[in-house]
Amino acid sequence: MVERVESNITHRMVSAIVDRSAESQPIWFSDEDIRDADEPFLSPLLEESFRQWEKEAADLSLFQSGEFVLFNREAKEIAAAGQAVEWPEGNRQALLASALQNVLVNGEPFIYESKAGCTAVVPLTRRSDGVLFGAFAYVTAIASDKYVSELQICSLHYRSCFYRQFEHIYVKDLLLQRQRAEKEANRRDTLFYAAKRLYDQIDVSSVLSELLRSLEHLYPCSEVHLYLSQDHLNGDPRVKPLVFKNAEHDLVAKAFLNGKAVTEQDRNGTIRLAVPMSGKQAAYGVLCISIGPCEWDEADLPAFLLLADTAGSAFENAKLYEQSNLLINELRLINDLTKRLNQSLRLKEIFQFATSELLTIFDADYCCVLQLNKKKSQFIVMSSNLPDFTREQFSPEYGFCGMVYRTREPMIISDYWHTRVVSSRLMDETGSRSLIATPIQVDGEVVGAILVTHKAPNFFSYDNYKLLQVMSTHIGLAVTNASLHAEVRRMVITDNLTGLYARSYLDEQIQNRQRTDPFGSLILVDIDCFKLVNDTFGHQIGDRILIQVSRSITESIRPGDIAARWGGEELAVYLPGIRAEQAYRIAEQIRIVIEKNTDPRVTVSCGVSEWTFENEKISVESLFYRADMALYEAKNNGRNCIFIG
Predict the structure, then answer these.
(1) Do 475 and 371 meet the contact criterion of CB atoms below 8 Å apart?
(2) Which residues contact 308 (CB under 8 A, 6 or more apart)?
(3) How far apart, in Å, are the Cα atoms of 359 and each of 383, 385, 452?
(4) How deeply is 415 buried, as exposed, middle or buried, from its count of CB atoms within 10 A (0-12, 13-18, 19+)?
(5) What is the pLDDT of residue 366?
(6) Predicted pLDDT of residue 435
(7) For residue 349, which of 485, 510, 442 has the smallest C-alpha distance?
(8) Local structure of residue 421 (DSSP, 8 states)
(9) Angle at which helices 530-537 and 539-556 pack, to 10 degrees?
(10) Which residues make beta-bridge pairs with 411?
(11) SS3 state at 223
(12) How far is residue 336's CA from residue 354's CA, in Å, rounded to a whole number?
């Protein structure tokens, strides 16, 4: 008894050990089976399993004496193999249908014997629940009751082949699902890192480059293009401007206008997908990809849309960052320009500085700053990096300065060679193709114009156009301030009646000249008997005589000579770089011209003095004193004559 118990315990222990071995463990998919819903799709699997069974059972003698036939649950013949025979009573279909119906209804093997032979049919049942899913038939001309048992063995063999094929398909499907899951996980990871990299970029070019690089990684065999609705020079040929030619048939235009993804497929099966790249504020372009049908999966569409949206948001953020930096830089430029402009009150310096700064700021090839002379009704080139253009004059009706004068608005020309709206000497002589121009306005009135050009087409952006407009305002204010300062100074240093310089200005200029020149001369001019003229003809005629005398003096001297009103009817002329002998001849010419050109006729007396570096640059007071003494001597010698002091 004890031995029996010990034997049983030992057996259970050995069984437990054996059961834990790998061979005895149940297969993880053994419970999987076909379902009723699979019935419409079983025919290929049934036939493929039958052919596999046929190969494995080919050595059976039954193949030489009869025919095996496989049916599905609907009594439809799926496949046959073996030696075809004459069916009993010549009605194969009717006999098989009757036999099969019997098997399907009863779920039991069926055999039909006759003089002509034997027909045996056995059911094929599912391994999990025993539900019938087909039938296995054998037809032979030899009558025997052993065929049912042999056919049952064959059906079991076939069922093992069927489930082996089913398991292959099942495992293959699981592997495909796993591959899809892994692919999807990898795609999600790739998209996540692509989105992260996109958001890490802070400039537009980097965003676009990262987007294209990510798509290259995701779809290496595809062709990708990005069509932008905004001007942007990226340097990548795949980044193109968005042009609306035929919106109805243009895939890219459709996607942009409708704000939705659009797909089309050509005859070769190539799929072309266009997706709008949008941010929160607007759509910035269209992402277009051409890809083969083998590489594209419809399941990729949501991820592709997500990538396009991410790129749109990243592009928008980078654009806003770029615009904020541009605005800051523009404000800094404007502030610096304004400070520099306000440091000088000389018009020439202001124009030259403005030209230099505009060339640098806009990286331009040429620049002209023009001022409107109202008296002459002409635009005068005040400053330019083209020496031949300086001081050139143009009509307010001519060229681009005429256009901004008439419209009072700035303008931008992308390509002068293709859009020659007006003739322009500046553009023609320099070979320029791009231009931005703006009027210089003060209190709503055009006082000048700025022309900035470049030899390359499409060089200037809309931001350049706006910045030039803002800068022209500050340049206009600086020009106005300098002009007002010059006018006030002119009023201070100019005699209102005669238009000659004031005595203080003459003193200042002589002092300046004495620091640089080796010598110079002074002429004092006094109108003879001027009190008698006033008493005889009145003060208005006297003033007219003063004006005529002043004009005669101005016409008789060089542009660099300085004529001033000394006081009352006395006038003075300083001649830099002139000795007394030559000054005497100039004074004589003045005396003759005045006597000839005045009405009523008057004469003048002149006193001349000089200074040279040899007498250590005598003072201005001494120079005037000596000339005054010479004038006094001329007065005492009958007037209308000249003496040198």
Answers:
(1) no
(2) 275, 276, 277, 278, 287
(3) 12, 9, 8
(4) middle
(5) 94
(6) 94
(7) 485
(8) -
(9) 140
(10) 437
(11) strand
(12) 12
Q: 503 in helix, strand or coil?
A: helix
Q: Which amino acid is at 211?
A: L
DSSP code of residue 87: P
Kindly calculate the radius of gyration of the chain based on its CA atoms and give it in whole angstroms: 55
What are the angstrom distances between the C-alpha of 459 and each of 300, 346, 419, 470? 40, 33, 15, 19
600 neighbors 537 (Cβ within 8 angstroms) = yes
At 53 the pLDDT is 93
- Rounded to whole angstroms, how far apart are CA atoms 180 and 79? 34
Strand 117-125 and strand 132-140: the pairing is antiparallel
For residues 352 and 383, the answer to whether their CB atoms sit within 8 Å is yes
Tokens of 457: 């087409």
Q: Which two tokens stand for residue 595?
A: 């006597």
pTM of the prediction? Answer: 0.49
Q: CA–CA distance from 110 to each of 130, 391, 628 (Å)?
A: 17, 120, 157
Cα 329 from Cα 425, distance rounded (Å): 33
Residue entry with tokens 């209190």: 443
Nearest of 595, 599, 544, 588 to residue 569 by alpha carbon? 544
Q: Give the separation between CA 267 and CA 287, rounded to whole angstroms.
A: 22
Distance separating the N- and C-terminal Cα atoms of the chain: 167
Give the helix/strand (H/E) hosting 578: none
- Strand arrangement of the beta sheet that strand 77-82 belongs to: 77-82, 66-72, 132-140, 117-125, 110-114
**Pairwise CA distance, residues 593 & 597, whole Å:** 6
Looking at residue 93, its pLDDT comes to 65
Q: CA–CA distance from 282 to each of 319, 486, 504 (Å)?
A: 12, 51, 67
Side-by-side strand order, sheet with 283-291:
239-241, 223-228, 283-291, 271-278, 262-265
Helix pair 43-56, 147-200: axis angle to 10 deg: 120
Q: Do the beta carbons of residue 411 and residue 437 sit within 8 Å? A: yes
Residue 644 C-alpha from the chain's centroid: 77
Measured at the CA of 621, the angle between CA 615 and CA 626, to 5 degrees, comes to 70
Is it true that the peptide bond before 600 is cis, omega within 30 degrees of 0?
A: yes
How far apart are the C-alpha atoms of 192 and 202, rounded to whole Å?
18
Instruction: Report how far residue 526's alpha carbon sits from residue 621's, in angstroms, rounded to the nearest whole number.
Output: 18
DSSP 246: -
* Integer Cα distance of 592 and 587 in angstroms: 9
What lies within 8 Å, CB to CB, of 330 at 6+ separation is 467, 470
Q: CB count, 10 Å around CB of 189? A: 10
pLDDT beneath 70: ranges in the chain = 1-31, 86-96, 115-116, 145, 230-234, 246-249, 326-327, 330, 333-334, 337, 341, 343-345, 485-487, 489, 616-617
Amino acid at 443: D
User: H or E segment at 102?
Assistant: helix 92-106
Whole-number pLDDT of residue 410 = 93
Contact status, residue 405 vs residue 439, Cβ threshold 8 Å: yes
Q: At what angle do helices 347-361 and 301-342 cross, to 10 degrees?
A: 160
Do residues 480 and 447 make contact, with C-beta atoms less than 8 angstroms apart? yes
- DSSP-derived secondary structure for 549-571: HHHHHHHHS-TTSEEEEEETTEE
Structure tokens at 439: 């009027």
Q: HSE (CB half, 13 Å, CA atoms) of 269?
A: 5
